[in-house]
Amino acid sequence: MLIALGVTGGVGAYKAVEVARGLQKHGHDIVAIMTASATQFVGPLTFEAITRRRVITGQFETGANADIEHIALASSIDLLLIAPATANVIGKMAHGIADDFLTTLYTATRTPVVLAPAMNSQMFSHPAIAENMRTLERRGVRFVESGEGYLACGWIGKGRLAEPEAIVATVVAVLRPATALTGRRVLVTAGPTYEDLDPVRYLGNRSSGRMGFAVAEEAARRGAAVTLISGPTSVTPPARCEVVRVRTAVEMHAEVMARADAADAVVMAAAVADYRPSVRADQKISKGSEDLTIQLTRNPDVLAELGARRATRGHGPVLVGFAAETEQVVARARAKREHKQVDLIVANDVSRGDAGFDVETNAVTLVGATLTEELPLQSKSRVAEAILDRVEPLLAARAVRVQARRRTSRR
Ligand code: CTP
Questions:
Q1: CATH 3.40.50.10300 domain residues, the chain
Q2: Contact 55, 33 (CB under 8 A)
Q3: Residue 348: beta bridge partners?
Q4: Which CATH number fits domain 2-175: 3.90.25.10, 3.30.470.20, 3.40.50.1950, 3.30.420.10?
Q5: N or C: lower Cβ tally within 10 Å for the chain?
Q6: Where in the chain is the domain with CATH 3.40.50.1950?
Q7: Catalytic annotation, pick one of 49, 153, 200, 371
Q8: Is 153 noted as a catalytic residue in this protein?
Q9: Does the beta carbon of 302 sit less than 6 angstroms from any atom of ligand 1?
């Protein structure tokens, strides 16, 4: 694959040479782009010798504009890596400033982008820079975490460019070839459900849909055909997914059940309401002087029904559920997994402010038949990756069972 390696002006620029070599060892082709300040740290000739390609050092060099090179390159590369990425280039990227070849390429390309930041530790924790990194992360840019230790400026702290091996490993993982998800059908649910009381009022919950959207996006990136069944939310669903909008738990139940047989995996990230008002008033309910009692009716449990159906039939899709808990997170998730007869439960401690509902990050524990894996607080797209990393072996095992069943039925 063709990787554009952007090198910006940091002391770690020399390490980018090792990164280029490492990527080549994995069979990738590299085109190096150096900013003006990067050339103060390393000579373009070094990169030219290693990549065996002309190094792009400016927007307006002769020869670079015959086919509007940044546009041509934007559509021919498979990944853009910037190592080291300075605070300056991160700031420009976060704000859409395209004033040199590298930043123009970034705004013109739609390939995955990986940044390996390097800067002084004070700069790293500056609110403006931290916010710029969060902005980029929200847009799907991946970061290779910086190292800690002695920095060239004499400070000790976080900010050193990650080691070349770590950068190469991240890029290789992002460019992952065909996986067990490639060509599979994945059904993902996301968001809350709204249970109407009357024409203007409903019972809802704080789910934003982000976690389910991240799972859908990552599954699509790994080559799955994804259908996303989403409750009401203002967050934009990912591209490359078929999106089915629902409002209530009963609607979600109907849409999931209609599609589950054709799915290889179902990930129920939606926060489905367990109850709905027993009566939906046709007209707006007016207040009276007395207290008001609302009677609630149990909604179908979609996930439990899928689990029960699979147990009865002896075959069915891989099933993943979520569990929002405020106490005894793992124990409850384990009980939920057994009760609902599913493969994996993604357990959330929703009592934390920085995880779960309506935030960009999540801290979950994955609970499987023989698995308890506590993941650190990280972006929902990273959590989605970890979940699908666990779904893949389940899918591969299921494919073997499907094959065996076909062979027996042919006999
Ligand atoms: N779920 C479902 N249908 C429902 C309710 C929940 O399919 N009517 C799914 C959710 O999508 C999620 C999992 O089941 O994957 C959550 O299970 P649930 O038992 O509802 O979790 P909590 O609401 O956390 O459970 P409880 O209130 O019973 O602790």
A1: 185-282+293-410
A2: yes
A3: 324, 364
A4: 3.40.50.1950
A5: C
A6: 2-175
A7: 153
A8: yes
A9: yes
Check: CB of residue 246 under 8 Å from CB of residue 231.
yes
CA–CA gap between residue 189 and residue 342 (Å, rounded)? 15
Predicted pLDDT of residue 61: 64
Average pLDDT value for residue range 255-269: 97
DSSP structure class, residue 309: H
Q: Is 303 in the pocket of ligand 1 (CB under 6 A)?
A: yes
Q: Which residue has the tokens 């109907």?
A: 254
DSSP output for 16-71: HHHHHHHHHHTT-EEEEEE-TTHHHHS-HHHHHHHH-SPPB--TT-TTSTTTTHHH
Segment 244-250 shows an average pLDDT of 98
pLDDT mean over 104-123:
92
Per the CB < 8 A criterion, the answer to whether 340 and 266 are in contact is: no
Q: In 10 A of CB 19, how many CB atoms?
A: 28
Gap from CA of 42 to ligand 1 centroid (Å): 56
Find out whether the beta carbon of 253 lies less than 6 Å from any atom of ligand 1: no
What's the pLDDT band for 153 if we cut at 50, 70, 90?
low
pLDDT, one tens digit per residue, over 164-180 is 999 999 999 888 767 88
Give me the architecture of the 185-282+293-410 domain, per CATH. 3-Layer(aba) Sandwich (3.40)
Among the ranges given (46-55, 177-186, 229-238, 315-324), the one the predictor scored with the smallest mean pLDDT: 177-186
What is the 317 CA–ligand 1 centroid distance (Å)? 18
What is the band of 351 on the pLDDT scale with cuts at 50, 70, 90? confident
Which of 214, 399, 240 lies closest to 318, judged by CA? Answer: 399
C-beta 321 within 6 A of ligand 1 = yes
Tell me what pLDDT residue 70 has: 64
pTM of the full structure: 0.67
CA of 301 to the centre of ligand 1 (A): 7
Q: What is the DSSP letter of 11?
A: G
The whole-chain average pLDDT of the chain stands at: 92
Residue 180 in contact with ligand 1 by CB distance below 6 A: no
**Residue 122, pLDDT above cutoff 90:** no
Query: Do β-strands 225-230 and 241-245 pair in parallel, antiparallel, or remain unpaired?
Result: parallel
